[in-house]
């Protein structure tokens, strides 16, 4: 299989020929025998099979996380029997799971048969919010169980009911609100890290974070810009979760808390920068248009809006954002993953000028768009 699928060795000026050759079993077999072409053929075959087998890898990853195998190996290499007893999995099945983990680069198999944590596995555990995201994935997996029906719009996605307050003015269950806020906050440090590399706020006076949850992004901004006044605006049930985090960050006195719904309420005045961090892709165009109009109204002349979230590659599709995030937001049924150009268009329609799209260092974490109120 890995020697067969083939593309990319003929000049790009002949796309029709490329497709005919790539689709020819005879040419695939020829390429697999020629030293100069064999490497490319094998790479293409491996990439194709990786697409075919990707769902199995994600499930093996989920098992490693749920069984806390990676966590257990932080203490050092262990034999299969010890890990099997720890996870309450039959040894022969644990062997298969550990082999899969090693094949994915998360584990190392020692010569004595023991398994150890690999650098990639250690990095996975160190990335804020990544384990929580993986543990959250079964909801999405269930929604994609029948992908044909899903794309035809014939399913009732569970994700569409998972975060109820995204649909309206308030949460139906404070526990759900707390779970959502915690999941977002866990990964917000990575987002803040990349946003603050992309955007310079040194000339800002007052930043209002709209849809800011428990204040994780503001905590990062406060550390980077000690003189910057800060404000947080979100739904009442969400804002209630903020004081503890802000107190832990030592910035309670710097952050003004504002409760309301950006669907219906005017935003607080006084900020010269308003941030929307991972907000727009949760909502439909009509909701986003209304929100951007409120942002425009709340800003003074020369004030700026900052939008940051994973964005579609648009004309150059991005593997991470145009698969994972696009399908996730489609399952949520409330918003969609937009390209930087689409967000720029929505900002222009709201009256903003000087719009700049800032591609992210890690697009799967975030990119940014900034604009000015004329």
From TrEMBL:
> For the O-methyltransferase dimerisation domain, which residue ranges apply?
50-125
The protein's name is: SAM-dependent methyltransferase
> Does S-adenosyl-L-methionine appear among the keywords?
yes
Q: What's the source species for this entry?
A: Fertoeibacter niger
**Which keywords appear in this protein's UniProt record, sorted alphabetically?**
Methyltransferase, S-adenosyl-L-methionine, Transferase
Limits of the O-methyltransferase C-terminal domain: 141-352
**PROSITE patterns (alphabetical):** SAM_OMT_II
At the top level of its lineage, which domain of life is listed?
Bacteria
A GO term (biological process) for this protein? methylation
Q: Which one of the record's GO molecular function terms can you name?
A: protein dimerization activity
| UniProt cross-references to InterPro entries, sorted A to Z | COMT-like, COMT_C, COMT_dimerisation, SAM-dependent_MTases_sf, WH-like_DNA-bd_sf, WH_DNA-bd_sf
């Amino acid at each position: 299989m890995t020697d067969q699928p083939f593309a990319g060795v003929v000049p790009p000026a002949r796309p029709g020929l490329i497709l005919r050759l790539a689709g020819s079993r005879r040419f695939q077999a020829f390429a697999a025998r020629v030293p100069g072409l064999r490497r490319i053929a094998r790479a293409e075959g491996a990439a194709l099979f990786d697409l075919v087998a990707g769902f199995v890898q994600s499930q093996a990853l989920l098992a490693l996380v749920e069984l806390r195998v990676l966590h257990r190996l932080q203490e050092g290499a262990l034999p299969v029997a010890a890990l099997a007893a720890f996870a309450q999995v039959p040894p022969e099945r644990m062997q298969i799971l550990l082999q899969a983990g090693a094949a994915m680069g998360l584990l190392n198999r020692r010569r004595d048969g023991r398994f150890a944590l690999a650098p990639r596995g250690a990095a996975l555990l160190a990335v804020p919010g990544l384990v929580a995201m993986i543990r959250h994935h079964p909801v999405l997996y269930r929604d994609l169980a029948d992908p044909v029906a899903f794309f035809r719009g014939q399913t009732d996605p569970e994700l569409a009911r998972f975060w109820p307050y995204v649909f309206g003015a308030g949460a139906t269950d404070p526990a759900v609100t707390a779970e959502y806020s915690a999941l977002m906050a866990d990964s917000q440090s990575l987002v803040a890290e990349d946003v603050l590399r992309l955007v310079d706020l040194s000339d800002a006076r007052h930043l209002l974070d709209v849809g800011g949850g428990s204040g994780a992004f503001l905590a990062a901004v406060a550390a980077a810009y000690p003189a910057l006044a800060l404000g947080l605006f979100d739904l009442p049930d969400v804002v209630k979760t903020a004081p503890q985090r802000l107190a832990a960050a030592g910035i309670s006195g710097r952050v003004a808390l504002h409760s309301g719904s950006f669907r219906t309420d005017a935003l607080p005045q006084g900020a010269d920068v308003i941030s929307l961090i991972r907000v727009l892709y949760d909502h439909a165009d009509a909701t986003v248009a209304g929100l951007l109009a409120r942002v425009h109204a709340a800003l003074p002349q020369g004030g700026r809006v900052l939008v940051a979230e994973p964005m579609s590659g648009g004309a150059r599709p991005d593997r991470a954002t145009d698969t994972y995030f696009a399908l996730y937001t489609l399952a949520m049924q409330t918003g969609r993953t937009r390209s930087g150009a689409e967000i720029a268009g929505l900002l222009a329609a709201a009256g903003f000028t000087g719009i700049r799209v800032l591609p992210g260092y890690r697009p799967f974490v975030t990119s940014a768009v900034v604009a000015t109120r004329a």
